[in-house]
Amino acid sequence: MQLGSCFLDSLTVTSFFGNAEMRGVFNDRQLMQSWLDVEAALARGQASLGTIPSAAARAITETARLDRLDTAVLAADAADTVHPLVPLVRALTAACPGDAGRYVHLGATTQDVMDTGFVLRARAGLDIVQRQVDELVRILRRLALRHRTTPMPARTHGQQALPTTFGLRCAVWQSELQRHRSRLAQMRDRLLVTSMGGAAGTMAGYGPQAFALERAVADELGLGVADTPWHATSDRFAECLMVLGLVAASAEKLAREVYFLGRTEVGEAYEPQRATQVGSSTMPHKRNPIRCEAVIAAAGTLRAQVPLALQTMVAQDDRDMGVGMTLWKLLPECFILIGGALERLVEVFGDLGVNPDRMRSNLDITGGLVLSEAVMLRLAGPLGREQAHHLVMRIVRDSLEQNRPFADVLRADPQVAAALPGTELAGLLDPLSYVGHAAALVDRALLNSESP
């Protein structure tokens, strides 16, 4: 059993879900430490206003470290009280020297401490997410520039459509992530505020200097001040999880793109593989996109939590601990999932295998059919758009049904021959001649977006 536990622990560190850094922010020890940080900030804020002695605030701050408390006693007390915070308050009170313990948690209510603690951990989690998104944007920008003119098939409805460039694909992806960067930044001011409503949202327990105390505590923690108490309004956290859901959806899209492009029949781009990596326990040739699959699983799991995050906004009366406990579960899970998904995407795209030769050869698979629009638009001049479309569509059908090259069927058609000299037709059927403004679009996207 012990061996199994160690093995599972080692898997957790390099887990397919989450990463060590995000788990470090959202483990139980950090949960309790965030509450202790709020208790210490409250004491310092009260001392700054003369509500409690400064010596008491210093003693509370020095003692408010989890390693100074007996976690075994905390666990036993939690089982007895069936309360999330009271055991921690009791332990902190008992551990403070002299009479400093009498000033612990003065005027506060449980949800003030819990919600503000959640905000502190969310801030740390958002810092990680922002850094990961920034790195992914940088990687995609480099790929966009490197493959600015690398031709590949554009696909619509699962079918080859027209020529495009891999650089443009990467530029589009980085633009989507740039918008998520903005969403993450814009959300911070709304989310990163203290919760100091007191027992029923009136701040009565904080006394006549309640507003000044609120500002002092916010300054101590580096947070903002909310206009009104928000025990029963969880829209801040719901927005946070919705934005993480958006990031997760983009992460899954990128993972699925690599998953598809790496198919044996496509082979245009692929997930990097370490020399020691095993694709299959029985098929040595397999190079499975395991990181992309982990991203897909994590992102789908996270997005499924978004409706539950919205449900937390439907709180009862002036306080509803059912909402609080739901967030207690949701926040760590969602941050851990997105942290792992983004870490794996950075690994995938940071060393992405790109095969320009395969991209070009795939463009030639249709024998020029991907240039049918170019031919049709050129014929629209002498024939009119509708007649040209009808003509080229018939030629495409004949090419497919007779298994003849598109170029040969075009040249054999008298209307096409009369309207297009052979040399011009050859140019129209060159994929490189019909990538449109792909390179300029890459330039515009990178110029108009911020480089992290």
From TrEMBL:
GO CC, any one term: cytosol
Protein name: 3-carboxy-cis,cis-muconate cycloisomerase
InterPro entries named among the record's database cross-references: AdenyloSucc_lyase_C, Fumarate_lyase_CS, Fumarate_lyase_fam, Fumarate_lyase_N, L-Aspartase-like, Pur_lyase
Gene3D superfamilies cross-referenced by the UniProt entry: Fumarase/aspartase (C-terminal domain) (1.10.40.30), Fumarase/aspartase (Central domain) (1.20.200.10)
Record-linked NCBIfam families: purB (TIGR00928)
Species this chain originates from: Polymorphospora rubra
PANTHER family (alphabetical): ADENYLOSUCCINATE LYASE
Annotated keywords: Lyase
GO MF, one annotated term: N6-(1,2-dicarboxyethyl)AMP AMP-lyase (fumarate-forming) activity
